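User: Fold this, then the next.

Assistant: Folding the first:
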Amino acid sequence: MVKLLPNSLLSCSQNRETERFGIGIGDEQAWVTNMASSSSSSSAQEKHDVFLSFRGEDTRFGFTKNLYHALRGKNIQTYMDDQKLESGHEISPQLMEAIKESKICIIVLSKNFASSTWCLNELVHILECKGNENVIPIFYDIDPSIVRKLSDIYGEAFVKHKQNFKDKKEKVEQWRRALENLANLCGYHSKNFGDEHELVNKIAKDILLKLPKYQLTNYGDLIGIEEPLKEIESLLSNGQMDVRIIGIWGMGGIGKTTLASIVFQRWSYSHFDGYCFLEDTPEEADNTNHLRYRLLFALLKDKTLLSMNTPDVGSTLIQNRLLSKKVFIVLDNLNGRSSKLIDLLEGYQLGIGSRIIVTSRDKQLLVTKNCQIYQLKGLYDHDALQLFRFHAFGSNSLATGYEALLESVAHYAKGNPLALKVLGSSLKYKSVEEWKSALDKLKTDPDPEIKKVLRISYDGLGDKSIQGIFLDIACFFNNQVPREEVESISNHATIGISVLIDKSLIISEWYRMLRMHDLLRQMARAIVCDESRDCGNRSRLWNNKDSCHVLERNTGTSAIEGILLDLSQLRKDVKVTRTAFSKMFNLRLLKLHLDKRFPPYNCSRYPSGECNFRVSLSDGVEPFVSDDLKYFQWDTYPLKYLPYFNPENLVQLIMRESQLELLWNEDQPLELVKLKKIDLSYSEHLMQIPNLSRAINLEVLNLQSCSSLVQLPSFFQNLGKLQFLHLQVCYNLEDGLENLPINVRELYLDRTAIKSLPESIWKLKYLERLDLSFCRNLRKIPEILCHMKFLVEIMLYGTEIEELPKSIDNLTRLKTLCLACNKIIKFLPNSLCKLLHLQELYLRECSSLEELPPLPRGLRKLDIGKCERLKSLPELPSSLDYLCPVECSSLEELPPLPRGLRKLNIGKCERLKSIAELPSSLFDLCAKECSSLEELPPLPHDLGTLNIVKCERLKSLPELPSSLNYLRANECLSIEELPPLPHCMVKLNIRKCERLKSIAELPSSLYCLFAEECSSLEELPPLPHDLGTLNIGKCERLKSLPELPSSLYDLCAEGCSSLEELPPLPHHLRQLNIGKCKRLKSLPELPSSLYDLCAEECSSLEELPPLPHSLHILNIGKWERLKSLPELPSSLKVLKANDCTSLEAISSWGYATAQKKFYEDPFFSFENCIKLDDNTLNNVIANHVHHQVSSAEDDTLYVYPGDEIPEWFSYQTGGQDSISIHLPPNWFKLGLRFAICFVYVVLNGYYDQLIEVEYEFNFKANTSNGGDELLYKHGGELTRFLGRIIDSDHVSIVTQPHNRRGFFWPISDGELLEVFGPNWSSICRNITEASFRVFHEDQNGVIMNIKKFGIHPLNNGFEEPNVDGDSTSKRGFGECSSDQPNGYQHNHDSHPHNISK
């Protein structure tokens, strides 16, 4: 809940004896905060603004009556009890209800107030009902100290109460505490005011100002309004004596009008002399005079006076009337020309304290009047989901079965309240299937009501070129896009983008990134679709289906300005016709991309992911006819040369991983004046770069991984604006570095073949970054003959440079120097210390480095890890905050450490016997595996992390600082006890501390405790309340556990062989591992939250308690006494019940109606459960297998005793070695998805040895000349088992190969090429039949006999088995057209595996 802070606050001085109970500023944050929280829980039926509590005989006809009338005079609904006599001691039910129904309670403390038990009981009830934060005391002719101390007349009253209520001492004490509490609250003291009239008016005025803060924040369906409401009211600062204009700016439907309406309702009528809420209409967009007349009439309500108003000069009479009024104005949905707000208010000034709120989609309408602008953004995800749920199901209805759909719709709306409301209302009372249908429609066809609201902003642009920029962003970019990218494809984009930002049609974010709301994008795409039913006549194509249609069928026209095609989402090969672009005279953008394979989406150095289908140009391509082509991108371009087009307007050329050998054959350089970026990265066949000397504005040239390039051409030096040159991984590039352009800023030469750097490299005066990593042939860096004022980073990682130049001090601005993994360099120049700006020095794995020179005094990070010959370190600069000499095996001592050091890693410094004094600033100390270290120095007070893993000689620890939150002391074999643990510690790891017999008191803050294999540990101390993870595995002497905290979610007690029982398990426990607890005879009740239960080899356990419905993993292998299993929950994804040799029955096994993806493949094993009865095998397990295999998307494996393949397996062997299958048309595009079953026995095996089961397809292809059939083989691993002896028949069912590879999913061209050769397409079309077999090749003495097997299709389209025929007969696929795969499921994670021809 949002907590609203008032602008003027009641004074709360700590000196209650002399305090002035009046108005103070800034003292009441807690008052309002608690009020807000208490009001949120109060009844929504509050009828009264104020409840008056008073002593009737003292003030009824005087002060209280005057206060009542003053409050009522300001329209403050006030409750005042009209009973003239207070009867009895107990207050009436009517009064109790009135107190509950009031926002604020005012208590008038007069002289005789304490003598009335009625008043005291009323006070107690008020404080119980309202708390302290919405109760205001008025000390009327009584001093607050008398009330607080119960002295004077109040003390006398309480003496009498004690006598009269001897048997009710608690009641009297309750009254006393109530008065003391009340006296400490903020309030009013009558002596601080000149007269009673002043006091009454002051109270009434203050209450009026406070009431908006007390209003309930229950706004019905206006979910998520609290935070923007708080921010707007903060900007308004009502009470400040100035005139303010607040602009609320945002996209259509975002809630601007709603927010302004609530603020208007809360403040206008009670705080201002005049107010009006005016909505601007499109018809009045340019008619400021009429809107101005409406505004003045609403404020003045005098037509005669308004007749004196003129457009350019304001009337003096009207001005005088306005100056005398404090007004509140809302101008809603202001639109039109940018000067409209100025024109509307021109010539008139408003009274002091006036406020104006203006809502608009156009920021320019707001900035012109110097108002404060508040940008209203979409709802947070949880608020959006709540709002949508409210409109779709009402406030109290459940949404069972709709959970995933709810999230999909909420995600679609992206926090836009209008969209959430419209969609929720339209889907109300609809079925799940209707929801799914509506969602599918929304993907391409936006809701008309939402579209209508959003289109207003688009139509209001007016300028066709700016509308075009908006459509470009919407159609060609899905997420964030750099501003420069848009400017490269659109005309006049610089000013146009600014207009779109101001109109709330796009959002400007960090680093000049632009973003568009998904609803606006969908609306824009609908506008383009409305241009024509024929996609070839539309201006922009972004949908893969439409783009492929135009390119394959040559239906493009001059209407097309841009084509976007995501190659990673292709579902088939695309054959572009030779004349596909011959009619596109206005084409500006062509983008056939694989962006997700390359940076920045893929951070790897090499392309990632498979492209299953490709775009081909088998007949070549005719020249492009457009003269306006600005953006040309064709990733994996298949031809050797660039197609001809006019490059006069080209801005970006991107052809990554292409087959290009040469861009063009022109002898003369082309006019490329507008070209700014070329990216030909990963074009391995590119042998040379054409003359680009006239690309005078080229800024970025990316030739990364163009491995056929051998030199840089001479014209490079003419590229005067080139700033970023990427040549990394050009393995054969050796020459031409003397031709580098002088203005280049970032130069990447890593993994090239260069042998030397020319001295001219230092003439690149603007060079900032130079990367020469892994240039293995580079032995020397030339002397630096001039100051490099901009160079900040040099990367020499993995080079074999023998020495650095002595003139390295000329790198005056160098910040980072990396020489890591240089195995040759022995010394660094002494001039290194003159690099005053050097902050990071990386020398890790410089294994020949024997000593370091004096270090620069500004150095902050020094990494010398694995410098094995380094015996000592020089004086360390005081600026150093990170030192890492990890694995410096010759280092025997450390120099004095700098005072500012924050992190020190001396792990595996095997000769280091001691550590000098540690600086007080140190936060992280790692001394892991310092095997000679015998003691630690005193630890600094601010240390947060201490790692002393495997410090085997360390016998004790010093006092641990109070700041330490993580201690890793595992495998400290000599430590026998721990010092007291600090109170803020969060993690403690003492694994394999074999001599540790006990643990001292654990801090209450501890969240994780790892104490596995503490073999001497006999008991645990009480566990902290917030502990989340407890691992005590293999603590073999531990016989019992203390009470487990309710916060615990992960408990591992595996191998606690002495543990005889478990305490009650906490309700939030998610994981429980008690494997090999062989003395454990029973389990407590399992919590409903349990997700994973591992109880393998608990040989004394005979039964399981009821299993929770949330359980996903259950391991009860080798329960030799277990005879039956309780009901298995439908959530179960992994069940390991192997070797439960006494198991006879499972009561039941539920299965989920909808399968969800699981991080681990479903696996259900009943291996060697040979006593399972017929009902369990033939009904419980069989039914679960059939359902799971038919509906699951995960790979699934079942193993259970039996010798029959289930009848529903369509194809089964009957003595044959293989099964013949008819294949559907287009099978090679769709992939084949089967469940496979085989019956097997293992006659000889070893438990720790894996047995692999393999599969094989044999494809038959008829030759075109009617000759012999050709056979093609494809196979791989199907599954694997542990090689134990299984001397009875078992059934195994697998839904797809163990390694997820092969033809069981959509097949890539590469796989088909490897199996069927270069003519795979025509060959596969002729293949209609295949044989399939499952087999095991005996190895290492393992004997496995596969007796029979079967295969069942999981794709639609198979014929039903012929039950009257032979089970071994061929069963064909049903009809399956090439355009409609009839349910074949696509999965693009497939990779070729074990493929042979």
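Now the next one, as you asked:
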Amino acid sequence: MDAAAMEVDIDQHPPSDPLPFARCYQLEALDMALKQNTIVYLETGSGKTLIATMLLRSYAYQIRKPSPYIAVFLVPKVVLVSQQAEVLKMHTDLKVGMYWGEMGVDFWNAALWRQEIEKHEVLVMTPAILLHVLRHRFFKMEMIKVLIFDECQHASGKHPYACIMTEFYHHYLKSPNYEVPRILGMTASPIKTKGGQSESEYWQKLQCLETLMNSKIYTCESESVLANYVPFSTIKYKSYQKMGIPRGLLAQLGALLMRLKEKHKGEVARYDLEKSAADSTCKSIEQIYSTLMYCLEELGLWLAWKAADFLTRQEVEDLLWGKLDLTGEKILRHFCSEVFQELTTFVDSDAQWAIADDNKLKVATGYLASSRVVTLIESLLEYSHIKAIRCIIFVERIITASVLHSLLNELLHKHNSWRSKSIAGNSSGLLRQSRKLQQEIVEEFREGKVNIIVATSILEEGLDVQSCNLVIRFDPAPTVSSFIQSRGRARMQNSDFLLLVESGDASTYSRLGKFLASGEIMRKLSLSHASVPCQALDDDLYSEEIYRVESTGAVITLCSSVEMLYFYCSRLPSDGYFKPMPRFDIDKEMGICRIHMPKSCPVPPLRPICWPGNINTLRKIACFEACKQLHRYGALTDDLIPDVVVEDKQTTNAEKEPYDDEHPAYFPTELVNRLSKSNAYHFYVIQLLQQFSYDVRVQGLVLAMRSELEPGICFKLQADRGMLTANFKYAGSCSLTEEQVNCCRKFQSTLLSVLVEHNVTKLVEVLNSFNSGNSPGIDYLILPLKSGYPNEGTVDWEPVASVLFPSAEVSNSPSSGSNVSNEHIKGCCFHGRSCLVTKDGPVCSCLLQNSVVYTPHNGRIYCISGFLNSLNANSKLNMRDGSSVTYKQYYKERYGINLRCEEQSLLKGRHIFQAQNCLFWGRLRKEKEEPSKAMVELPPELCQLIIAPISINTVYSYSFAPSIIHRLESLLMAANLKRMHLDHCVQNAVIPTTKVLEALTTKQCQEEFHLESLETLGDSFLKYAVSQHLFKSYGNHHEGMLSIKRERITSNAALCKLGCECNLPGFIRDEQFDPKNWIIPGYKSQSLLNEEFVFGRKMYVVGKRKIKMKRVADVVEALIGAYVSTGGETAGVMFLDWLGIKVDFGVSPYERGSSLNESLVNIKQLEALLGYSFNDPSLLVEALTHGSFMLPEIPRCYQRLEYLGDSVLDYLITVHLYSTYPRLSPGLITDMRSASVNNDCYALAAVKVELHKHLLHASQALHRDIANTLENSDKFASTIMYGWESETSFPKVLGDIIESLAGAILVDSGYNKQKVFDSIRPLLEPLVTPETLQLHPVRELNEICQKENYTLKKPTVSRDDNGISVTVEVEAGGKIYRHTSCADKKETAKRVASRAVLKSLKQASV
């Protein structure tokens, strides 16, 4: 299909009208672009982007959503992505997406790209991204309707532009089954050349571009056409005389720099670095040396001094030292610092001296090496009358840009207010500026906040600043393209293009002249060959072997395979001592290359590659074959993405899934009336054992409910005066009449309402609701226990029938209560001879002396326990101020009440008891109240009866009822959850309901127990169960892949999702019990309940609540711990299965593909040390092999065994602590586990038994760090137990081998965990105990600051020659406690600094 000549079908869908302000040549270019593939060759500023915009408008009908097609706009520089996207957004209504590398698009998968295509119609991106997407087939070339190449002159060689065309466009072009996109190229210079060629050579290059792009060049007939629209800058030559630095001074400074260079390269050798690190450090030293020598020779002493200063400053965070370790960086900084200090001695130290004083004198003395710098300054000053100057100075080197702008800022402020900044790329590795910073500088330039930008070629292409009126080439343009594009940056009318050329440099003058003429030559050639069709692409010229995946179409080429292989290796597990990379053994004479992959790679040893030719090609072929093998073994997916990247992305996506934190709160069905017609109840005596002294005695209660309870319910309550034990005993069952049930409900609702609310407002609402006939949904009865139980029966029915409070509105008028009282008087044995006047009228004294009353004058409720016969209304009341008045006077003055029954004895009352949260385990005990403070004297005539008779002991006992029932509800919910699990599987082990309840109770409840210790146990079991399952199931997966797979199963997000699918949030107890929120049985409870079916069981919901994701995950782990701790591992596995986590504990052989060389380690000595004899000693060898040991004799390293051993040790030590110290608080168990299960603890154990002597590795850095650790071993051998007491860092590898040995023993013993513990435990002795436990200093400091309300500031971190420094600061009691520590690792420095601050705080508090 000839796409170059393919026309758009515009019969049915005419293109949109061109923009009204489009110029004539833009319309001509658009017309050509609609008919065929086109390269628009026009001057910078002529509006090429507008042509692309109009083309997109013409194709809008084909790409507008919901169309599956898109347009792609490619730009060569990241800085141009947003600029071009904004133009498209301004002139079209198309949805535009922007993409660049820093967005992490290299790690996107097909699904993410599909989302972007569904959202956007035009995708603006850099070409490497599109090439990556096409190679991995995240979307296909046939989906692109328009493909635009900005600055298309780059399309040559292996540039991404060229690869897109050769690998995909031309491949599709040859097939009749595929459509190809319309191509539009844009350029201000179609070819990149240094000039000097003949016209035939120019045409050859133009024709190559046309062929590669399958497009014809469009351009204007002459510059005069463009001149009507586009301002052209005036070219001016500025010559300067070459005047180098004085020879004597240059020789002296050169010798100085050479001496410092050799000194620091010697430092590299002294530190015995890894070869790669040493080579990188030496290469960086050479690079800095050559950079500084260039500055001395070309720019002068002052700018060389500034360059050294620039390279030395630590606040320059964007400095790149290459692939250096801390030691290499330290050496390099020393080098730069010493150079700066030495050069400082050559710079005039007079405080009055400045570089700006006499520029020509500075040239003569060597401060400025040549008059080129002076010429630049003088040229700029010629424009000082232009206040709004916008100038770009183009330089070749990054260091020149960095120091020149410093010079300009130093000089120009004496003449004007101009500000200068620099922008540079990062090709030299000296400076990396973020995209954001570069964008900010460009914006400041546009707005006039920055007047001068000193830039490398990064700004030659595409920067659109309309107000730029001066461009200066400090260094000559190297190519035609560079010349034309840098000239085009000057966009203002009457702008200038200054070329600084050395006087007498004829070759440069000649080259610049040819550059100037080249534009016209290329225009003439393009026009003269406009009718010549594009040639077919020469397959031999561009052919390259391609590996294509049949199922997806993803491809690897010979060139892309190198990058792919290194990218794959970069995602393999690594540590600070080994970065996995392919290793090449090349025999140049024989033309043979053998590639060795890292040990964690699943591919078996590759066959040698033979290619008698170029070594680079040989290397590429080896990489190409390795990539093919990686795909065949599944290490590269069918999209040719490393499997670990895909797995990691899926894990990340799973964790980002939205989580709805609102969940139903379940209520136990056992306490709900499920519309049963029978009134049969099961009665339980709640024996309350009072373990404190008080003037009021607790007596038992009776619970009547429709369902039977599990036997053995007993728990403790924390009253405000001491402990109380509630013990449930079954007392039989019987049926109650409807009248009895209503009477019981009315009694409990009344009494519980006043105990909870302490007022009658809610009581009236409760009784009105009850009397309205509303049938309660929550149905159980709390009844008083007879004082003579069990000899005199169970329920004390007398108070149950004694509710006298009116159900009508509370008022002073006589009510139904007086009727009850009259009935009582008639039947009273005293025949009413002892009646007292109350608010309800005459009431028998035997009713009043044990009652609950309400006093309307103050709205309070009291318990009456007798009469004060010696006191009446005329008795004296002692006031707080020492005076005394009669009770009659007091009530008159305080409440305006006239007491009429002056002779009536006062009642002995006390404030009604408060229903408290007796499950709260942090309660402070009250001191015993004095009787005089507890007692209240009340005139009977002010009292309204609520319940009478009822003893004060009964009232006090009912104050505990809300807490008792709340705990019962929790136990019933735990039992329901347990039954739901039993519905799923047959459980032989008996799991106590209390243990399930513990797992459902979070720390926020502040009760006697919470889930933390069970969560710790469950977390370790889950980690081990999943780890061993994955280890056995995926024998070819490396540790990184296994860890990601485990994370997908065990992460908080994953566990929360599983928990929600099992409806666990409805069972969780996540807040402190508040009796005021407790549902009083019988009060509107039916309207609060909603039915819901969970796993086929009917559940009742009492509203919604919010529970955090981590809380749900914690409960899942705690439930696992509950089942494991009481039912063993089998019960734990069955619970995991119910959750949806499938694990297999079966034993399977450990297949590794090849045997290991056992002669490399002392098997017998290690077996003696471990107390274990290996059935397969090669496992021991593998467990001691570090990834850096690249010898082919050992195909695997210890990482997989470390992964397994980490989980089994974690689990074994947690089980040991949990079983050894069953009565420890959950928090202490967690702390002991943290102290026992950590890499520092393991590393310390490895050093003690000298395991480092058996470690197989080839890392000089690791050897050095182990040696340093051994040097300090005498300091901590006898005092340090858990690693974090040390002030030095342990190499992580030492801890790793303890874990890998545990993994090796586990596999070799057929997964016998006891043998693992018996072998590893002696190495870890002494294990932590509650007495020897020391908290981690960082945590202890955090806890103290929270407890004492101290201000703990965020630690400050800095890096210097000695390592990493961390400063910890605490403000306590108006004083500052601060300490700074330096170490190799940030964690170590922070730990030591925290310990020092802790010590100071403790000393100060003493």
